[in-house]
Design goal:
This protein is of the alpha/beta class and 329 residues long. It has 13 helices and 12 strands. The protein folds into 2 domains: 172 residues, Glycogen Phosphorylase B (Rossmann fold, 3-Layer(aba) Sandwich); 147 residues, Glycogen Phosphorylase B (Rossmann fold). The strands form 2 sheets. A 7-stranded parallel sheet has the order 3-2-1-4-5-6-7, with helices on both faces. A 5-stranded parallel sheet has the order 9-8-10-11-12, with helices on both faces. Strand 11, helix 10 and strand 12 form a beta-alpha-beta unit.
Length: 329
């Protein structure tokens, strides 16, 4: 019987469950959830015990023993936790099994605390047997570290069936601007507040998935105005996928991974503006406010573009990385 793969990550939030399930069905995976047994928001109410794939709950340091146990034919690990990644890498090396890095950032955080992790991270980038990334923006960053192994892309996805299903539009003004998430400085909310002088700005935080879907359906545009900080650069922005499945265009800054990674394409699926530029964001909002045909064209293209971003596509990318790692180790 073929040994399973060990996949080390923090949690299995509902938006990841379909992707993780698809990978398990294809490869046979045990997910080591270092965050423990908790209930998650952001797209459902599953608890870890109800997951449709095997799970274990090691400590971060315990990951090393698990990865070295020879119970698994390969080890995959993301960037979660303080020591889980180096523990998974060291354990895989000790056990003589291939190691795949799941890379999710496109710039290393620039804080004193993160400075200490830069060289160990660079070593893992350079010596992983294969690397799977969020998209081309992360792949470009990873290739700058001169990895020995091949780099593959596993596109970000949400629960396609849920987010593309018919909704009951929640509309609160003739031109509705939706901000979905925490109104935090790094999310660019202050910039959006200063720019949104047309229409009705709706802030959606801590809403149920059904409420969010209805708000997307009732909005004319979703804005993702994230700005880079010393310790944050938006890795992706899953609200983009969710909005696109409802056919709603997005205005995103160039500091948003979904824009840098090619899902939000300027003038095709949405509009892209410089991060922190109030005037540019205001002009983009006015443009969509004044041009219903442009909104419709962008929204239709957005729905078409996001159709390729599925849990199965993510699992395919991860499986390609596993095949390459197993063949090259």
């Amino acid at each position: 019987m073929t040994k399973p793969v060990l996949f080390v990550t923090n949690h299995a939030p509902p938006f990841r469950v379909p992707a993780f399930q698809a990978l398990h069905e294809r490869e046979g995976v045990v997910f080591a959830l270092i965050g423990g047994k908790v209930r998650h928001g952001g797209g459902g109410t599953l608890v870890d015990e109800a997951m449709p794939f095997p799970t274990v709950y090691p400590s971060q340091r315990g990951v090393a023993r698990l990865a070295a146990s020879k119970r698994f034919r390969a080890v995959v690990a993301g960037l979660s936790g303080r020591v889980a990644l180096p523990a998974a890498y060291a354990g895989a090396r000790a056990g003589g099994v291939p190691f795949v890095l799941w890379a999710t950032i496109w710039r290393h955080p620039r804080t004193p605390a993160h400075a200490a992790s830069y060289l160990p991270m660079r070593h893992i980038y350079r010596h992983a047997d294969a690397i799977a990334t969020y998209g081309p923006h992360v792949s470009a960053y990873v290739r700058g570290k001169h990895p020995k192994g091949p780099v593959f892309e596993a596109p970000q996805s949400v629960d396609v069936d849920f987010w593309s299903a018919a909704a009951q539009p929640d509309r609160r003004g003739p031109f509705q601007i939706l901000f979905a998430g925490r109104p935090a400085p790094e999310k660019g909310f202050d910039v959006l507040e200063a720019a949104a002088d047309v229409g009705t700005l709706v802030v959606a935080q801590d809403r149920s998935p059904t409420e969010m879907r209805n708000l997307y359906a009732g909005s004319d545009v979703v804005v993702v105005p994230s700005v880079p900080t010393r310790d944050f650069l938006e890795p992706w922005g899953l609200v983009v996928n969710e909005a696109f499945h409802q056919g709603i265009p997005v205005i995103a800054t160039d500091a948003v991974g979904a824009a840098a990674g090619g899902l939000v394409q300027h003038e095709r699926t949405g509009l892209v503006v410089p991060a922190g530029d109030v005037q540019a964001l205001r002009a983009a909002l006015h443009r969509l406010h004044d041009d219903a045909q442009l909104r419709a064209r962008l929204g239709a293209a957005a729905r078409q573009a996001v159709a390729a971003y599925t849990p199965r596509a993510w699992a395919d990318g991860m499986a390609r990385a596993l095949r390459a790692a197993e063949g090259g180790c």
